[in-house]
Design a protein that fits this description.
heterodimer, A: alpha/beta, Rossmann fold, about 35% helix, globular, B: Alpha-Beta Plaits, Alpha-Beta Plaits, five-stranded antiparallel beta sheet
Chain lengths: ~600, ~200
């Protein structure tokens, strides 16, 4: 077989783009095509990797790309959904904007799931879709679809270009909007005539202001002061942190705040890895399958400090019984999040990179020893009833938790862990250890099965020096397994760990607990995953015995290349603790 | 408690923005009673006037979602006491009825209707006013062979608004200073959320 060996390599910092004012000067004043202008814009923005799939309406851009092969890397995915999830994975580990190409019609509609995922998880993306010639718009032309209207609800911004001369300015806006403020996906639809059209190119100027757009609300000091007053007077304050800390690149500022205030801190699934797992004040995960203490004590704290999180229903459980006793301080960059689900006593609008240091300055240095002890008591109970039995099951069949435990021993918390959706995702997030930020890549808000494999490919290109382990269920893997072809062709060293319970486990768990064990279409059969991987020239093995697990994990991690390890786990294991839907967080069940 | 609110939105004049705003309502299964878009007092800036029947809590959240859109400059909501508003209505009535029946002529005068077109077969009248007024005239004209009726969306002026020029200057500032007011809600917070004890 012929493989292009384009290993992910370290790349120059994207922030170089902001200094490049204006770029593409070599072409300034020249007549260039819209397609060339697109690629010049990407280069000026410091883009090193594009995930995409060609087609009729985007052919002029791909034709121009042919001449840019030495400046920009294009990863040919096997499905546009895989392309956009890869873009998401890349953005999540690198902190840069993910770039995706797709053609019109089906190419564009295949992006929709990824756009919705990126929108709800605030992932910065610029997607460029081809479109039919402008004169054919609205004629039901071949591969024409109204992609702007289809994607409006799932994009932060979108725009259709019909004239090439718009391209530099529109792409500059696209990158600015995608990455500024609360990040999100942007889609630019470019008609074929605009890609072909020649125009007088005046260079590329990055955008840093749009008059109708306020990426960051201005910090109001009086609210920071008010928040500090509440925190200093609190006896049982509790920090909830979300992805805002990571998106704001404020991990250091956050840790300083946590350490000076001495307040216990719990994370949402999107906030995971912003604070090291073994930090003494990291008390665990919030929400439906979160830890025991953080859930129960949410309803006992006196001041709740929410940082860069949005009180998703999976975090709050029943809202009218959620933290009613507490005064709520809410730090968020998006004003629309304040009071959306939980009313804030003190709203601290702004970028937490700016607000957290202000707050840290004003809070008194404290150690909430007794209060932290309360969390430790709950942890103890969860360990006894839940965690230890899961880590050391008294059956021959392995549990997902013990696989994670073995993996932690080998990675020491240095790996990027990409998870799909379902039971393995909850177990993965609960048990995986993290030392570094931007290490947890998962589909949090949308819960997109099939996310992990393509996202892991992108994650590897975004963090080429780090091991990337994709933990995937047997169901989710079968949704996007064609991306094994992408791994085969471009050689991303992704470690694929399939936890196979021969069920759509999370749905089965709900059917068991809430639908009287009526297992309706959750019994899913699988192909021989190892043979499948081999057919893509990817090494792999299957493990069913505990005795061989650690060696197999080590082989996977040490292997020079991508690797697929299938681990058979208990068929009818459940994920606990669990806050049943419609219940309060304090009604969390341990078994 | 649901009540009538008028939402005023200042936007850039861009294709697709109407859809972006409309889906904020339809996504939450909220019906728009009336929607008008028109130029504003500032060239290039458009003004949406949207009327819905909802609780204030919902309206406040909707307005924040609208204001979050990249091409929206500002969004406000007001109750009917805070605005001056009008709607335009057109009525098509058979000309012979008006000519023959004195009562119809009197009704039209009473409601301040003006003739826009007079033909042998029909006459078109217009009135402007609040919905109750224009609707009442439909009722009273119905027995006399009202052929057609149409009413425009609401347009509204906010009583205590000082226009948008000053606001726009703020938006055009590249780096707004400390004194720039970011959002009314924060300033009016005490008045808006008396129950938060803040």
């Amino acid at each position: 077989m012929t493989t292009q060996t384009l290993q992910p390599t370290a790349t120059p910092d994207q922030s170089a783009a902001s200094q490049a004012l204006p770029t593409g000067e070599g072409l300034g004043g020249a007549e260039v095509s819209g397609s060339v202008a697109v690629l010049e814009a990407l280069i000026a923005e410091g883009v090193d990797t594009i995930f995409g799939y060609p087609g009729g309406a985007i052919m002029p851009i791909y034709d121009a790309l042919y001449d840019y092969n030495d400046k920009i890397r294009h990863i040919l995915v096997r499905h546009e959904q895989g392309g956009i999830h890869a873009g998401q994975g890349y953005a999540r580990t690198s902190g840069r904007v993910g770039v995706v190409f797709a053609t019109s019609g089906p190419g564009a509609t295949n992006l929709v799931t990824g756009l919705a995922d990126a929108q709800i998880d605030s992932t910065p993306l610029v997607c460029i879709t081809g479109q039919v010639f402008a004169h054919l718009l609205g004629t039901d032309a071949f591969q024409e679809t109204d992609v702007i209207n289809i994607t409006t609800p799932v994009t932060k911004w979108n725009y259709q270009v019909t004239d090439a001369s718009e391209i530099p300015e529109v792409l500059a806006k696209a990158f600015y909007i995608a990455k500024s403020g609360r990040p999100g996906p942007v889609l630019i639809d470019i008609t074929k005539n605009a890609q072909l059209q020649k125009f007088a190119y005046k260079g590329y100027t990055p955008c840093n202001h749009i008059r109708s757009y306020r990426p960051k609300p201005i910090v109001r000091k009086e609210y920071v002061e008010e928040a500090a007053k509440l925190i200093n007077a609190a006896e049982r304050p509790f920090i909830l942190f979300g992805q805002g800390v990571i998106l704001g690149k404020a991990e250091k500022e956050f840790q300083q705040f946590v350490e000076k205030s001495g307040i216990p801190a719990a994370w949402t699934i999107m906030g995971l890895s912003a604070l090291p797992t073994d930090h003494p004040q990291n008390v665990g995960m919030l929400g439906m399958h979160g830890n025991y203490g953080p859930n129960v004590l949410t309803n006992e704290c006196d001041v709740l400090i929410a940082i860069g999180m949005r009180f998703d229903d999976r975090v709050t459980g029943r809202l009218d019984k959620y933290a009613k006793q507490a005064k709520v301080i809410h730090l968020d960059i998006d004003p629309a999040e304040i009071d959306k689900n939980v009313k804030a006593t003190v709203p601290v609008w702004g970028d937490c990179k700016e607000t957290l240091p202000l707050l840290t300055q004003l809070v008194e240095a404290k150690q909430h020893t007794e209060w932290l002890q309360r969390f430790a008591e709950f942890t103890q109970k969860e360990q006894e009833i839940c965690i230890q039995p899961e880590m050391n099951p008294d059956s021959e069949v392995m549990s997902m938790a013990e696989v994670l435990d073995a993996l932690n021993e080998l990675t020491n918390g240095d790996a990027v862990i990409v998870t799909d959706v379902g039971q393995h995702q909850m177990v993965g997030c609960r048990y995986a250890k993290f030392n570094k930020t931007r290490s947890n890549v998962t589909s949090g808000g949308l819960g997109t099965m099939g996310f992990a494999l393509p996202a892991a490919i992108g994650a590897k290109y975004g963090a080429p020096d780090r091991p990337v382990v994709a933990i995937i269920g047997d169901g989710g893997f079968q949704m996007t397994l064609q991306e094994l072809g992408t791994i085969m062709q471009f050689g991303a060293q992704v470690k694929i760990l399939i936890l196979n319970n021969e069920f759509l486990g999370m749905v089965r768990q709900w059917q068991q607990l809430f639908h009287d064990r009526r297992y309706s279409f959750v019994n899913i059969t699988s192909p021989d995953f190892v043979a499948l991987a081999k057919s893509y020239y990817i090494e792999g093995q299957k493990v069913s015995q505990r005795a061989t697990l650690k060696a197999a994990l080590k082989t996977m991690l040490d292997h020079d290349g991508a690797y697929l390890l299938e681990v058979m786990v208990g068929k009818e294991n459940n994920v606990f603790p669990m806050v049943p839907q419609g219940c309060s967080v304090s009604e969390i069940r341990l078994q | 408690m649901k009540q009538e609110f008028t939402i005023t939105v200042y936007t850039e004049n861009h294709i697709g923005l109407l859809n972006r705003i409309a889906i904020i309502f339809s996504r939450r299964k909220i019906n728009i009673d009336s929607l008008n878009t028109s130029p504003s007092e500032i060239e290039g800036i458009h003004r949406f006037t949207i009327v819905i029947d909802e609780t204030e809590d919902v309206v406040r959240k909707l307005v924040r979602q609208i204001e979050k859109q990249v091409e929206v400059l500002k969004a406000y909501y007001n109750n009917p006491e805070e605005i001056v508003w009008q709607e335009l209505a057109l009525y098509k009535v058979p000309t012979d009825v008006i000519a023959e029946k004195v009562k119809v002529e009197r009704l039209l005068r009473q409601y301040g209707a003006r003739a826009v077109v007079i033909r042998k077969d029909y006459t078109v009248f217009e009135t402007t006013g609040h919905r109750e007024e224009t609707e009442k005239l439909v009722e009273v004209l119905a027995p006399y062979g009202l052929i057609e009726f149409v009413r425009s969306a609401r347009i509204a002026i906010i009583k205590d608004s000082k226009g948008f020029h000053e606001k726009l200057k703020e938006f055009e500032e590249e780096q707004p200073g400390e004194e720039v007011v970011e959002n009314e809600y924060l300033n009016q917070r005490e008045a808006l959320f008396p129950d938060t004890g803040y």
